[in-house]
Design goal:
This protein is of the alpha+beta class. It folds into three domains: 24-110, Helix Hairpins, CATH 1.10.287; 131-177, Roll (SH3 type barrels), CATH 2.30.30.60; 183-265, Alpha-Beta Plaits, CATH 3.30.70. Helices cover 47% and strands 17% of the residues. The chain has helices at residues 8-19, 27-56, 63-88, 93-110, 112-126, 167-172, 198-210, 249-265, 284-288, 296-300; strands at 135-138, 141-148, 152-156, 162-166, 175-177, 183-192, 222-228, 233-242. The strands form two sheets. It has a five-stranded antiparallel beta sheet with strand order 4-3-2-1-5. A three-stranded antiparallel beta sheet has the order 6-8-7, covered by helices on one side. Helix 2 (27-56) packs antiparallel against helix 3 and helix 3 (63-88) packs antiparallel against helix 4.
């Protein structure tokens, strides 16, 4: 008579039965396992509390990341307690450890974005390139940093919106920190006529710009000629203002108003672009001789005025 051969499924069941051996389990073993599980609860809470106290000693570590550390240590304590209790119930701890490892790997793969953001948040707090209160631009958003969390960075925009940017995006994208230094620079251009005394205009503009509120004296305002065309000379005006200001709009408004007033009082003429006049094609009436076509002189004269008298 042929012996019965175990199938692969039967082999797996046999391995499971070998891993779980309850033949030698006594009532004391069950009681010990129950005590371990009961005691594990307060121990896990105590371990979580201690880990949070230690984590708070790390400079600039956000509160939500501190809470994540506490949760991680608590559940790790619970897993150890469960494995220990199962060993009293005749379960092979090595087999349980393998199952736990598989579960941990699965959870890690499922929660990979969250883990990456937590790791990025840790890097942003441990090695900060900016902090709460800084004005930054990153991942296409610009505003004031309100919070650097374990998963995201909260930015308040100039129009009153609160935007949460994932830390992994903040860490991987270029970060422009507008408040990294004490002052920032703003600039704009104007065009003046060719007959303008550039030295006189430069001296005048620097003087009036320096008198505008929030314009810093060091570095001093600058006015430089940066362009020369057939119709105008371009002057570039630059000045510095405190980087703590949300934007340069109020400073620029004051500077432009001061420049406009000063140029008007000094009778310095601003150059305006010259636009060509495109004449319309002659109509059918023109071809028939009903209307006399305009001469080149009359078309080129401003406001359509003719050179000759009627």
């Amino acid at each position: 008579m042929n012996a019965i051969r175990l199938t692969p499924q039967s082999d797996q069941l046999q391995q499971l039965e070998d891993a779980i051996n309850t033949a030698q389990v006594s009532g004391w073993d069950v009681l010990a396992a129950a005590v371990i599980l009961v005691v594990a609860y307060p121990i896990g809470r105590a371990v979580a509390k201690t880990s949070r106290v230690v984590a708070r000693r790390i400079p600039n570590l956000p509160d939500d990341l501190v809470m994540d550390v506490g949760r991680l240590t608590k559940w790790f304590t619970y897993l150890i307690a469960v494995a220990w209790a199962l060993s009293f119930l005749g379960v092979n701890v090595g087999w349980v450890a393998m199952v736990i490892a598989v579960v941990v790997v699965f959870v890690f793969l499922m929660a990979r974005p969250m883990v990456e953001n937590i790791a990025a948040g840790t890097l942003l707090t441990v090695r900060p390139s900016f902090g709460v209160g800084d004005q930054v631009e990153t991942a296409g958003y610009r505003g004031t940093v309100e919070e650097i969390g374990s998963r995201s960075t909260a930015i308040r925009t100039s129009d009153g919106l609160r935007i949460h940017v994932a830390n992994i995006d903040v860490l991987s994208a270029p970060i422009v920190v507008y408040t990294a230094y004490d002052s920032r620079r703003a600039a704009f251009d104007i065009s003046v006529a060719h007959d303008t005394d550039l030295d006189e205009a430069t001296h005048l503009l620097i003087e009036v710009i320096a008198a505008v509120d929030d314009v810093q004296q060091d570095p001093a305002p600058e006015v430089q000629a940066t362009g020369f065309a057939s119709t105008a000379i371009t002057l570039s005006i630059s000045y510095w203002y405190p980087s703590s200001m949300t934007s340069d709009s109020s400073v620029t408004d004051g500077v432009i108003r001061a420049v406009k007033t000063a140029l008007s009082e000094a009778e310095i003429e601003l150059a305006v672009p010259l636009f060509g006049v495109e004449r319309a094609a002659p109509s059918a009436a023109t071809h028939s001789g009903d209307v006399e076509p305009a001469t080149d002189d009359s078309a080129a004269t401003p406001d359509g005025a003719q050179d000759g008298s009627k």
